[in-house]
User: Fold Iron/ascorbate oxidoreductase from Pseudolycoriella hygida.
Amino acid sequence: MTSVIPVIDVSELLAGTSGKHKVAKEIGDACRTYGFFYISNHGVSEELQKKVEDLSIKFYAQSLEEKEKIHMSVEGRKRGYYGILKERTASGPDFREVLTFGKDLLDDHPYVASGHYKPNQYPENIEGFRETVKEYFQEMETLGTRLIEAIAISLGLDKNYFYENYTSDPHNVLLLVNYPPPNRELKEDEFWGVGEHSDFGFLTILKQDMSGGLQIKSGNSWIDAKPIEGTFVCNIGDMLSIVSGGEYVSTAHRVRNPANHSRQSYPFFIGPNFNAIVKPFNNQKNEAVITDYNDELTESVKELREKYEAYRRNVVA
Ligand SMILES: O=C(O)CCC(=O)C(=O)O
Ligand SMILES: [Fe+2]
Assistant:
């Protein structure tokens, strides 16, 4: 692997013009070689990105007490804030703090009704936060849909393969992440902002600020995924690698804030529907193994899955 992660201009893909197949091919090549690529001309306005950044900076500048008012554990929400060194990767606790948001599902969605899926928590003391984050989430979903279509095409599949099999009701998550500058005296620079890991979903679309610090694994060495103005960094997650039969790689990456000020990044993770069974598109043998596993599901999960299928049929109909 060379140290050049490609920058792919996706304007023709978004416009649906004749160059879109070339874009799909470039994406496919990058997915096989690096599992990472940058996208430019992605259509998400600088103004909206700046609004998200300003709000996120405002949120993190608050006291811990204020931030913990929307802690993830509030009413078992699983969405909201968690603090520095509270999350772990293989190298140890991560030196970053995180705000997480999922999709706002309707109250009659079975996962909401059953209590498995809790509503988002927004910092209501910061004006415009809810609206802006929702708008950004929506933009990321739309952009992600186009990229996933291109990935399907690049694998020789129908453009709608992922939508039909996996992403009609996708489990997407947006993080607003703050990496404070490590304090040398406290030896905080011995921690990773986020240690070596791969993403577990389908595709991640990341907006990083200009601080730097993101690295991706290449054999036994690491290459910098430097910030490039006007681009997002995209990477393949474990589940999409599985669907591709291992053809597309889910590459390990890590971050340490090199700046003497906070680094911010906003990853948007695209994952399959909650009840999806992820399997290689071209491997029947694996499919059989995974179907056996299905028999081991507990009765309560089976029941929930059936309710969900019924709900999906209704929503789609
Ligand atoms: O902050 C970044 O640049 C990357 C974050 C990341 O890899 C993750 O949250 O999974
Ligand atoms: Fe990651």
Remarks:
- Residues 288-292 have pLDDT under 50 and may be disordered.
